[in-house]
Amino acid sequence: MPVGGSAVHVCAGRIVEKAKKIAAPMMEVAAQDIALEAGSFSVPGTNIAPLPFARVARMAYLGHVLPDGMEPGLDETLFYDPTGMGAPSGVHMAYVEVDPDTGMIEILDYVAVDDAGVIINPLLARGQIHGGVVQGIGQALYEEARYDPDSGQLLTGSLLDYAVPRADSLPQIRSQFQQTPSPTNPLGVKGIGESGAIGAPPTIVHAVLDALVPFGIAQLDMPLTPQKVLSAIQSARQDKSH
Q1: Do residues 159 and 231 share a domain?
Q2: Assigned domain for 74 exists
Q3: 215 occurs within a structural domain
Q4: Which domain holds residue 206?
Q5: How much is the pTM?
Q6: CATH assignment of the domain containing 105
Q7: pLDDT tens by residue, 51-98
Q8: Which end of the chain has the smaller Cβ count within 10 Å, N or C?
Q9: CA-CA distance, 69 to 90, in Å (whole number)?
């Protein structure tokens, strides 16, 4: 959206301005007095009848009725190069429970608050966050490419062996948005597709490590499988007993 959407936005604006110049002689007013609303051109503050955009578009392809020097058509092409990347930001929080006897981790709650600039489609934006968070949870707790140390054969080559998060292992993800327009594009939008996937792994890992503070465990590598967590707890208990 920051790049492709901005290109569409700029092209659409150019088309509207050209269409206003075509509509001006048809409505017998100056182009700058014309407004586009609900698919029709109108002149605010007057009783001039609205002119449908479709009629103006048809006229755009009749070269003999266009203003002098204007090329027929309403086609626009633009290579949009943003002045900078509008990176999103946010805060993700997780509440987890770790069973010290099995190493099992349960995510009890997950909250994501993201600033993705101006939100074009709230439903899709929320879906991007939810999908990304699930992907990040998979990275943090389940997904691992494992190889046989002797042959180099991939041991997790199918979904029978490669663990991914399932619905019954996920919490109800709560998400909200803060909308701070980006100054780097005309729509004020920022990227959002990777926000959940980037925010979730460190959020989950540090929530688990916080739960393991009583055992003196300060570092674990992803994925935090039950076997890995239980092994760390058992090692920590043995160290305390010596």
Answers
A1: yes
A2: no
A3: yes
A4: 89-241
A5: 0.81
A6: 3.30.365.10
A7: 999 999 999 998 777 888 888 999 999 998 888 877 889 999 999 999
A8: C
A9: 50
Short-list 74, 83, 87, 84, CA closest to 36: 74
Q: Indicate the residue type of 217.
A: I
Average pLDDT, the chain: 93
Amino acid 242: pLDDT: 67
**What CA–CA distance (Å, rounded) separates 42 from 53?**
10
User: How many domains does one find in the chain?
Assistant: 2
Q: What is the residue type of 67?
A: P
Task: Report yes or no on 149 lying in a domain.
Answer: yes
Q: Residue 187 in contact with residue 118, Cβ under 8 Å? A: yes
Residue 31 in domain: yes
Instruction: Please give the Cα distance from 139 to 73 (Å, whole number).
Output: 51
Asked if pLDDT for residue 231 goes beyond 90, the answer is yes
User: Is the pLDDT assigned to residue 199 strictly greater than 70?
Assistant: yes
Tell me, what's the pLDDT at 81? Answer: 87
